[in-house]
Structures are given as C-alpha cells and as structure tokens.
Amino acid sequence: MEAVQICGIKVYPFENRDTLIDYAFGRKGMLVAVNAEKSINADNTLRGIINENIGYCDGAGIVKGCRRKGVKKAIRIPGCELWLDIISRYAPQGKSFYLVGSRQEVVEGTVAKLRRQYPGINIAGYRNGFIKSAQERDELIDDIARTAPDIIFVAMGSPRQEILMAEIQKRHKALYQGLRVIRPFYGHFQTRTQVPAANGVRMVMEVCGTTHTHTTPHAISEICRKALQRQNLILKASGKPMPRKTTKWR
C-alpha cells in the first residue's frame, strides 16, 4: 500500500474497510484518522507520529485530495464506525482489547455494553481519559505492557491521544486506534449520528462532506462554511486547486 502526501502527511488511500483492517492488524501500528483540519493544523510532533504509522481518510477533503493525486478509489472511512468493525472482526477470534477515555462511569458503561453485544469479549483493561500526573501515565503504560492487549482504543482528543499511544508503543506493540471522545448519552465510544433534515439542508451537508446534522440553522451554516474552507485548502495543497463553479439555484 503506497501512501499519498497531503500537507506533509502520509495518508493511506484505502479502498474499503476490510483492506484497512487487514493491513493495520498485520503491521501492528497506530490508526490515525486524518481529516482536513488535522492535516492543516498538525504540528511537527503530530505529523511525525502520523507519518510513522497509518493515517487513513476520515474526511471528504482528504478523499478529494487523494483522488486529485490519482487515487480514484480512495474512500472515507469514519473512525467512529471503524472501531466497531475491528471489534466485530476480532472479538469472536478471542483477541483482547484495552479502552482508555472519557469519565470513569462512561468507559465502564462502554465496557458493559460491549460485553452485552459481544458475549465472551476479552477486555484486558480500561480506564478513564483523565491522566493527571506522570505517575498515572506510567501506571497506565505499565498495565498495558503487563496485560498485553492485541488492540487498544484511546479517546482523549487529538493530539493528546496520538502522543500517548506513541509512548505506549515503545513498550508494547499492538494495533492502536485513536477516537474523538466517548459520548455519555450513548454509553459507548462515539458513533455517527444523523438527525432528519430538510432535503436542501441534507444536500448542502453532503456537498460539504459532513455527516453531523446540527439542530440550529446557525450551527449548520457554520459547519458547512468550515468544511468547504478546509476542503479548498486540501485541494490547493494537493497541487490541483478546485476550479470555481457557479451554481444556479432554481
């Protein structure tokens, strides 16, 4: 699998989720979701971590950037769905998991739901994402090295989660995936949600490449504006700026 360079970040343009999961598990690296915002705002530390691991397309702007560089079959793979695909694939095989993120009661609810959904799932350990001292950090790394899970999910927000996973990688080789957050009202790691919207709003959201429909017109307008801005920056960075088009509204 050959990576594509976008804004100085290596992105692997996978054509489907199964190929991504097979490649990542065989390599035992860190899966990092790359979107337009992360590619533009990443500092040298985060950029270096991504380039040493497996950055994949988790944004419409990144997908368009890959396609404009000649990878026509690149697709967007939402990280909030990918982690469940990984569990569905490897939980029945007896692979072990470790979860880090959110408040303690939320991660406990996540583990409880996973155990109901996947009876017999091997969860090696879990803890909240509020690491307040170097001692707590070291204790977490020691526990992961001791329990040796096959797959580790960390939901602390970028770039904190990538930096933490890079530290753990030095002690224990496994498949790592960073997620955004754990949503307390879902009781599990964040999943993609859609709220019914008018046809015009839905069309605009699809053009912008976003899947989150917010409840206020201002929020919808703001996220669409930012999404279009980020996509234009990515397309410019790919060396093939998007031509200006005039849309006629009927």
Describe what you observe in this structure.
The structure is a single chain. The chain is an alpha/beta fold and 250 residues long. It has 10 helices and 10 strands. Helix 4 packs parallel to helix 10 and helix 9 runs parallel beside helix 10. A 6-stranded parallel sheet has the order 4-3-8-7-5-6, with helices on both faces. The chain has a two-stranded antiparallel ribbon with strand order 1-2.
Write out the strand line-up for the largest beta sheet, numbering strands in chain order: 4-3-8-7-5-6
Give the mean pLDDT. Answer: 83
Percentage of residues in helical conformation: 40-55%
Question: In sequence order, what are the helices and strands, one letter per element?
Answer: EEHEHHEHHEHEHEHEEEHH
Classify the oligomer.
Answer: single chain
Give the termini distance in whole angstroms.
44 Å
What composes the largest sheet? 6 strands, parallel
Strand content: 15-25%
Beta strand count = 10
Low-pLDDT parts are: 184-215
User: How large, in whole angstroms, is the Cα Rg?
Assistant: 19 Å
Name the structural class.
alpha/beta
Helix segment tally: 10
The general outline is globular
Offer a few descriptive terms.
250 residues, six-stranded parallel sheet, 10 strands
Short structural description:
With 250 residues, the protein is α/β, with parallel strands linked by helices. The chain contains 10 helices and 10 strands. Helix 4 (60-68) runs parallel beside helix 10 and helix 9 (199-208) packs parallel to helix 10.
Set down the secondary structure blueprint.
Blueprint: E1 4-6, E2 9-11, H1 17-27, E3 30-34, H2 36-41, H3 44-51, E4 54-57, H4 60-68, H5 79-90, E5 96-101, H6 104-117, E6 122-127, H7 134-147, E7 151-155, H8 160-169, E8 175-178, E9 182-183, E10 188-189, H9 199-208, H10 217-237
Parallel strand pairs: 3-4, 3-8, 5-6, 5-7, 7-8
Antiparallel strand pairs: 1-2, 9-10
Helix pairs in contact: 4-10, 9-10
